[in-house]
Specification:
With about 80 residues, this protein is mainly alpha-helical. It is about 50% helix and about 5% strand. It contains 4 helices and 2 strands. Helix 1 crosses helix 3. The relative contact order is 0.16. It holds the Pfam family DUF433.
């Protein structure tokens, strides 16, 4: 599975293909919650270990985009 963007799902956020699981959720579990990739596959049983690593690679390849998006004020 690859990383896809679909404006009709997850507000166009990058997701793992065919799962709807957002890359930023995988990255948050890894960076902020301290889960290792094996544990993330337990949190998201639809993902393989390679899916988790693919999502993390995508996140780090596009980290400036993710960080700038998270610093934007939330709309009410």
């Amino acid at each position: 599975m690859g990383i896809v963007r679909d404006s009709e799902h997850s507000d166009g956020a990058p997701t793992i293909e065919e799962t709807g699981i957002r890359v930023k959720d995988i990255a948050s579990a890894y960076e902020h919650s301290g889960y290792d990739p094996d544990e993330i596959t337990q949190l998201y049983p639809d993902l393989s270990l390679s899916d988790v690593h693919r999502a993390l690679a995508y996140y780090y390849d596009h980290i400036d985009d993710f960080r700038s998006a998270s610093s934007e004020p939330a709309s009410v």
